[in-house]
Amino acid sequence: MTSYQPQTSAEATPKVAELPEDAAEHFAGYAVLGLPFSSGHYLAFRDFPVSSIGPGYRSVWHRTPGGEWTIYANAAPEFSCARYFGTAIHHTVETDVDIQWSGPFTARITVPGAVDWRLQLGTSAATTALTAMAVRMPERLWRNELVLRAMGAFAGPLLNAGRMKVSGVVPNGQTFQAQPRQLWLVTDSQATIQGEDAGAPGALPVQDHLADFWLPQRGLFGARVGVRFPSTAHAAGPGPARVRTGKNQAA
Questions:
Q1: Is the pTM here over 0.85, yes or no?
Q2: Cα 153 to the chain's mean position, in Å?
């Protein structure tokens, strides 16, 4: 069985030409799908260097213990995650987002003045099996709703990550199809958020979700991740989210 390393897979930058040629909006790269902390904080990360709608971008998502969401991104909201999740987000901040690898399974993600986040990654029987299946799955099946619903239904319990869905509707009204082809566990993590220690990784008392996008209840890292938005309709604009731009601004 082929063995993959997250740093190598993450740094294998996809090309625009590799995006499917259809009317959907597409992104490709890698991500921390999500990581809950026992304190109630929650973090996620996206690095999508390839986009069909504009420049690639990096973003960090942060949920406070009170349930308030901020998205930090190094691209404008109309080109990054807020394009799809803005109506459910309290703050969006355009700022630097950086990731540095100190080894094939160790990374540090930073947002200046806001987030300092260290990750240790590893494998399990479940991530190895899901990766082996996903890397062999043909593109047409990644667009089949019945297949995607089944994948989400069994992947969540198999990974002990709670409810998971890889297709559905995002808060701004677009439909999405997520395609994580390689998976690892976050085996350890430390994070400081606005100067506060986030504590030890641990499931939230109640699993959170943003429309049909459920946040996993354990840390998961994905590479060769594609995200497809078949419907580009916006149910609403930014709505209650307060969009602020400017490098190194805090929310």
A1: yes
A2: 18
